[in-house]
Amino acid sequence: xxxxxxxxxxxxxxxxxxxxxxxxxxxxxxxxxxxxxxxxxxxxxxxxxxxxxxxxxxxxxxxxxxxxxxxxxxxxxxxxxxxxxxxxxxxxxxxxxxxxxxxxxxxxxxxxxxxxxxxxxxxxxxxxxxxxxxxxxxxxxxxxxxxxxxxxxxxxxxxxxxxxxxxxxxxxxxxxxxxxxxxxxxxxxxxxxxxxxxxxxxxxxxxxxxxxxxxxxxxxxxxxxxxxxxxxxxxxxxxxxxxxxxxxxxxxxxxxxxxxxxxxxxxxxxxxxxxxxxxxxxxxxxxxxxxxxxxxxxxxxxxxxxxxxxxxxxxxxxxxxxxxxxxxxxxxxxxxxxxxxxxxxxxxxxxxxxxxxxxxxxxxxxxxxxxxxxxxxxxxxxxxxxxxxxxxxxxxxxxxxxxxxxxxxxxxxxxxxxxxxxxxxxxxxxxxxxxxxxxxxxxxxxxxx
Length: 449
Fold this sequence. Notes:
This protein is of the alpha+beta class. Helix content is 45%, strand content 10%. It has helices at residues 3-6, 10-20, 34-46, 57-66, 83-95, 128-134, 137-143, 151-154, 172-176, 200-210, 214-217, 282-285, 291-301, 310-319, 322-337, 359-371, 374-391, 401-423, 430-445, and strands at residues 98-107, 116-118, 121-125, 158-167, 234-237, 255-261, 267-273.
């Protein structure tokens, strides 16, 4: 077995040793330094995925992450790895075929939630030391010596931590600066219709959590039916060639002043997180959302019933504000139970047994058939009328808290019922399934029922 196959080559170690001897602040252009050029050549010649010329900007990013001494400030000089450790780290990064990404999701406004784990995710509180480990504080300090990660304040919040493993199928330079490798001949202004705001793994975890009845647990629905908010996601990538962003400040989360008597005649003022209070039963009901239920939901998402962007709109409704939230709830129901043929008859692939029904009445019938009551169909009609009044510019009152929560609850129940339906047995086609729902529901919504 060759030397290169067991660790860093002598050429890599020699070049890195010379770079490690450079005194702060180092050369004006590290990329033009002879030792850097030799290291780049060692990467190019020793690894098949290094690119035709070897990494440049990516290599500079990696060296900073490993603690290149001349790039550190006096107060962080002790964070530099030894040249042997750094060479092993660079060698491992050049050979890596996959990387681990840890997505840190603060649950702003969350009250005291029970800890749960499902799929690649965990929800709960984290100590300051656990947060420091997750963000790889030493690497963060090497890159941003003037920035402090306030783990103590962050530890006062609940967190959703989502891990994923991603394949590294591009050369380091493309991973470090993907914009330099973009195909500029395409339509740069195009919209990807179902692209999420957050990484896919995070949105999958949020979709799962949002299937829980947060609107039922809420004690302040007029403030918010949600049990938490997600203002941002911070991702820690194990790939040292990838540019690392500065974490947001704890000030981006929601705090309130707290003043209390110190017991000696004085007062103490401090800040504490604002919480959306929830019913006590969440302590026993949320833990049901565990690994076994995650498996059921993931299997359901592979069903033909979920070929429409249901999960997309569930998450959009959670992340949206105002009327956009309301519209996303209604769109979730339409994505779950609507057919293109409801509006364009030529798309029917089976005889239309209810061709005299309007598209809205077909949706009412499917809601009733799925959830087993006319009450839910009437709720859908009420909400749809509000939606239509807004979209068509008709006079309308403000959307009430009752209607807002009703829209959230109905959309959640529809999605939950579809998940259960996927467990009942094979579904030959989505159109047949929805036709059967309409057969059941049409009897429930008929004037005589």
